[in-house]
Amino acid sequence: MSMTDAYRSSEADPSAGATTPKRLATSIRNLQKHYVLRSETVKALRGVSFDVPEGDYVAIMGPSGSGKSTLLNLLGCLDKPTKGSLMLGDDDIAKMTDDELAEIRSQRIGFVFQSYNLIQQLSVVENIQVPLYYQGNIGAKERARSIELAERVGLGDRLDHRPTQLSGGQQQRVAIARSLVNDPYFVLADEPTGNLDSVTTEEILSIFDQLNEEGRTIILVTHEDFVAARAKRVVRLKDGKLHKDEINTEDSRNAARDFQRKHVEQLLKEGDR
Ligand SMILES: Nc1ncnc2c1ncn2[C@@H]1O[C@H](COP(=O)(O)OP(=O)(O)OP(=O)(O)O)[C@@H](O)[C@H]1O
């Protein structure tokens, strides 16, 4: 059974996961990525291994140059590893053709970028639908799903707005809705709050919290400790290797949420926005 089938069948079976071990959204083994530049070879990833069970919420951290973006590009099927394996269910992306990678990328990976990456000429609903264009099937059902997702992220009253008519936080919410439209294996977020103020950051992190509570798998790259503190787990890279893989306890996650929310309440009280 391919990952797509496995994923869909789990949604159809409400008891799945209750008694059986969780399936993996992805499994990474001895992952290596080398960039060859004329006479020099840069070893951006030097053998990284870890699993991400479905429903996990992973923050990837590490100093500049440690390989975070490289890992994210591989997870997002934007690039292929030099060595090792990256499994999406039964499919190893190292063995896929470029066409297969493009297909899986457009159909089953949800991307959220720091700079939103919305299409300026399109409305909120049309932007949410963009990943569906690659499949060539946008009918009433798909439009209804896009509207539902816009409502889900609090933009039900902005359906026909263009990105320039939205705040940064609203644009990021469109990007989150867009990332979900294909029912992805996981949402991959690259510094999703990097351009946002504290209040808006809290709004976006709360949406990620809710999505994860609903079972969505989230993998995000961040430089911010308070963002990573919201995840279930923090994977730290150093010099292209896995340096640490630590669980955030429920207590510490709750404390991080409370701290950030109080900080935001204080800002709002002071009218500092
Ligand atoms: N396309 C590329 N060609 C050559 N070298 C690259 C390429 N992309 C990344 N590198 C190199 O690979 C290493 C890891 O880079 P990467 O961008 O993955 O790190 P990062 O942890 O995301 O850094 P930052 O936090 O600064 O974004 C760096 O030494 C970088 O210079």
UniProtKB/TrEMBL annotation:
Annotated ABC transporter domain residues: 26-264
The keyword Oxidoreductase is annotated on this UniProt entry: no
Highest rank taxon of the organism: Bacteria
The keyword Transmembrane appears for this protein: no
Keywords: ATP-binding, Hydrolase, Nucleotide-binding, Transport
Gene3D superfamilies: P-loop containing nucleotide triphosphate hydrolases (3.40.50.300)
The protein's name: ABC transporter ATP-binding protein
Species for this entry: Stieleria magnilauensis
